[in-house]
Amino acid sequence: MPVFAKSNATAYTSVSTAPGQSTFSAGNFVNAGKRKNLCAMEDEDQRPTVSKPIPTTCDTLEEGGFKTAKEQLWVDQQKKHNSLSRNAGPGTYGTGKKSLGAVRSRGLHGKFVPPIAKQDDGDGYTGQKKAYSASNSESNVPFDERLKNIEPKMIELIMSEIMDHGPPLNWDDIAGLEFAKTTIKEIVVWPMLRPDIFTGLRGPPKGILLFGPPGTGKTLIGKCIACQSRATFFSISASSLTSKWVGEGEKMVRALFTVARCHQPAVIFIDEIDSLLSQRGEGEHESSRRIKTEFLVQLDGATTSSDDRILVVGATNRPQEIDEAARRRLVKRLYIPLPEVSARKQIIVSLMSQETCSLSEKEVESIVLQAEGFSGADMTQLCREAALGPIRSLQVFDISTISSDQVRPIAYVDFQNALQTVRPSVSKQDLELYEQWNKTFGCGR
Ligand SMILES: Nc1ncnc2c1ncn2[C@@H]1O[C@H](COP(=O)(O)OP(=O)(O)OP(=O)(O)O)[C@@H](O)[C@H]1O
Predict the structure, then answer these.
(1) What's the 339 CA to ligand 1 centre distance in angstroms?
(2) Are the beta carbons of 363 and 412 closer than 8 angstroms?
(3) Which residues, 6 or more positions from 368, have their beta carbon under 8 angstroms from its beta carbon?
(4) 336 vs 176: CA distance, rounded Å
(5) Contacts of 106 (CB under 8 A, 6+ apart)
(6) How far does residue 186's CA lie from ligand 1's centre (Å)?
(7) Residue 196, SS3 per DSSP
(8) Which of 223, 227, 380 for a ligand 1 pocket mutation test, highest count of atoms within 8 Å of Cβ?
(9) ipTM of the complex as predicted
(10) Of all protein residues, whose CA lies closest to atom 9 belonging to ligand 1?
(11) CA of 348 to the centre of ligand 1 (A)
């Protein structure tokens, strides 16, 4: 009797944040709490002085019939500015049709298109205001004063490539890891949801560390914290700070925390945090040292300001490389181990429930036992490999002409074959190191 039926269930829908928080939805940057008009964001000096109430939108001015010369001039300037913006090409600040960060297709390694050059902005602030507000022209997001010293290109980069707009995640989507999940709910999620109750000693930590073998769900947990606490999620790999933005990493760190402050509550997830916070060595590069110092300064800032609701979640596969000062600041250090039998089973059951599959309960249990030592990512890889089995057995047919019901369900034999090629990615020696470090510095039982 097959235990799985094909289902179209998708675990995720859309990201939500707290009421009044800025959210991205369906390509639009929306600020439900304080909607202001694009025109209202322009430099105050450029506003026409009129005796009647000042129209609050460009449209109102355009539709308004009689205009004074000053009003007309201002409308013309707006039109000129908008057409400049439209001509600036896709992906630039000037594109009135596209909001910052609404498109994730570029990915972290995508081609970054710099913003249009600043014009006539003296201190650069006016130009930046324009760039920021033009980018958000669809939703009329007000310019945040805290961003005035941050380069617009960095704001764009953070919002489009570091701010994560992926689908939401539930705790149940993460198999196993019950201790880590319970602890995180208690010390992080509830306090972020109810800052009024979790004050003083009950206040949340500002930094936590998730350590353990690769592919065990650290990133999933980071995402889930953000979703469940209705926080904005920023996700960055520390190695990209040190390698991709050579010479700019330090500014990038500052910009990241500043943007996060504007989107509180926020979770900043830093993958491979060891490469940012490794112990200072003789050969440490000056720029790496500066990035690290800036990071610690920002982390301390987030710690000292009780109003800030920013949580830094660091993830690492090499916890032993994190230096003492950094370790001390990441107060809660949680071991994220390999999945146990029940978690491995949950991963298979969950993935197979989305496919046509003929595995019996017994067969699933047998696979799970054979997959001893597999990480969550290995389990996913095993299922992907097995899912190709029915296709491979179709070799005699022309794959372009067969109908989908000619593809047989995924069977036990496919897992047997997959187990021949997919191997555990974590060695026993590595596991011992994690367990040792957990005993010394971890916050588990
Ligand atoms: N506990 C889990 N439950 C369900 N799926 C998991 C789990 N752990 C890992 N996976 C699967 O493995 C993939 C990788 O997980 P994730 O990126 O969270 O691992 P990680 O610990 O952050 O890895 P790395 O240290 O390499 O960055 C996930 O997308 C998911 O498919």
Answers:
(1) 10
(2) yes
(3) 341, 344, 345, 348
(4) 10
(5) 91, 112, 160, 161
(6) 22
(7) coil
(8) 380
(9) 0.98
(10) 376
(11) 14
Cα-to-centroid distance, 370 and ligand 1 (Å): 20
pLDDT tens per residue, range 299-311: 887 655 667 788 8
pLDDT tens readout for residues 80-120: 444 434 333 333 222 232 222 223 333 323 333 333 333 33
- The pocket around ligand 1, CB under 6 angstroms, is made up of 174-177, 214-220, 271, 315, 317, 339, 343, 347, 376-377, 380
First to last CA, the chain: 41
- 21 vs 40: CA distance, rounded Å: 20
Q: Whose structure tokens read 């993935």?
A: 351
Instruction: Identify the bridge partners of residue 311 per DSSP, sorted by sequence position.
Output: 267
Q: Which two tokens stand for residue 63?
A: 């539709």
- Which residue, judged by its Cα, is nearest atom 12 of ligand 1? 377
| Residue whose CB lies within 8 A of the most ligand 1 atoms, among 172, 177, 211, 219, for a mutation test | 219
Mind listing the pLDDT tens digit for each residue in 148-186? 777 777 787 777 777 777 778 889 999 999 999 999 988
Beta-carbon count within 10 A of 206 CB: 20
Buried b (16+ CB within 10 A) or exposed e, 162-195: bbbbeebbebebbbbbeebbebbbebbbbbbbeb
CA of 376 to the centre of ligand 1 (A): 6
User: Between β-strands 28-31 and 22-25, what pairing exists: parallel, antiparallel or unpaired?
Assistant: antiparallel
Give the distance (Å) from ligand 1 centre to CA of residue 236: 16
Pocket test for ligand 1, best of 108, 177, 216, 347 (most atoms within 8 A of CB): 216
Query: Which residue type sits at 253?
Result: V
443 CA from centroid of ligand 1 (Å):
21
C-alpha–C-alpha distance, residues 121 and 340, integer Å: 59
Collapsed DSSP state (helix, strand, coil) of residue 401: coil
Rounded to the nearest whole angstrom, what is the distance from the C-alpha of residue 242 to the centroid of ligand 1? 24
- Positive or negative: CA dihedral 417, 423, 424, 429: positive
CA dist 84 and 79 (Å) reads 9
**pTM (2 decimals)?**
0.69
Strands (E), 326-407: 332-335
Token pair of 308, please?
């800030």
* Other beta carbons within 10 Å of 264: 17
Q: What's phi and psi for 339, nearest 5 deg?
A: -70, 140
